Amino acid sequence: DAGVTQSPTHLIKTRGQQVTLRCSPKSGHDTVSWYQQALGQGPQFIFQYYEEEERQRGNFPDRFSGHQFPNYSSELNVNALLLGDSALYLCASSPGYNEQFFGPGTRLTVL
Amino acid sequence: AQSVTQLGSHVSVSEGALVLLRCNYSSSVPPYLFWYVQYPNQGLQLLLKYTSAATLVKGINGFEAEFKKSETSFHLTKPSAHMSDAAEYFCAVSGAGGTSYGKLTFGQGTILTVHP
């Protein structure tokens, strides 16, 4: 049984660009959450998707948006990238509100 | 609102010694509490969780944690450290209900170093 997978592993962008990160949840999981982990910090909740809708959102600007597909996979989009968006982006899946299983993350570097 | 404070950003122990990583939380609703471990360049792995059942929770790799409501604490312990325990550990809280249900709030992390 594959766990949570994320792509790409690493990504380098320049300021002002847009980026899309992808996540495939663990089999049987219908809820996907996204977190941003800056260097030396704990992960911060961005938002959570369930039934293709954003169910909860953390304190992130509208430049951060997402989508969930009918197969429960999800995308995180970030527009107008800033240097401060450089971080490890973690996707977590869960069966409803239960414990979250994390993927390996996507390392985004903004130059 | 919820928050987590991990006391000590770095903890160093000798192999075979007791591991104690401290976590205090603040929550306006009954909390669910978690400990995750993160190895370099990897995602987070769940060690254990408290979800309002037994206050002493046993997890993987010999770790355990005790929920103490009066002290708002959820400290992580392991009787005997192994070299393979060297990693970063995160305490997290979510609400057992309300708008914080399912949303994890993490502490800043504690880096555990194990010396031979």
Question: What is shown here, in short?
Answer:
By secondary structure, chain A is an all-beta fold.
Looking at this protein, list some descriptive labels.
heterodimer, A: 111 residues, mainly beta, seven-stranded mixed β-sheet, four-stranded antiparallel β-sheet, 0% helix, globular, B: 116 residues, six-stranded mixed β-sheet, five-stranded antiparallel β-sheet
Q: Would you give an account of this structure?
A:
The complex is a heterodimer of chains A (111) and B (116). In chain A, the strands form 2 sheets. In chain A, strands 2, 4, 5, 6, 9, 10 and 11 form a 7-stranded mixed sheet that branches. A 4-stranded antiparallel sheet of chain A has the order 1-3-8-7, with no helix packed on it. Chain A has 111 residues and is mainly beta. The mean pLDDT of chain A is 94. Chain A contains no helices and 11 strands. Chain B is mostly beta strands and 116 residues long. In chain B, strands 2, 4, 5, 9, 10 and 11 form a 6-stranded mixed sheet that branches. A 5-stranded antiparallel sheet of chain B has the order 1-3-8-7-6, with no helix packed on it. In chain B, strand 7 and strand 8 form a beta hairpin. Chain B is globular. Chains A and B meet through strand 4, strand 5, strand 9 and strand 10 of A and strand 5 and strand 10 of B.
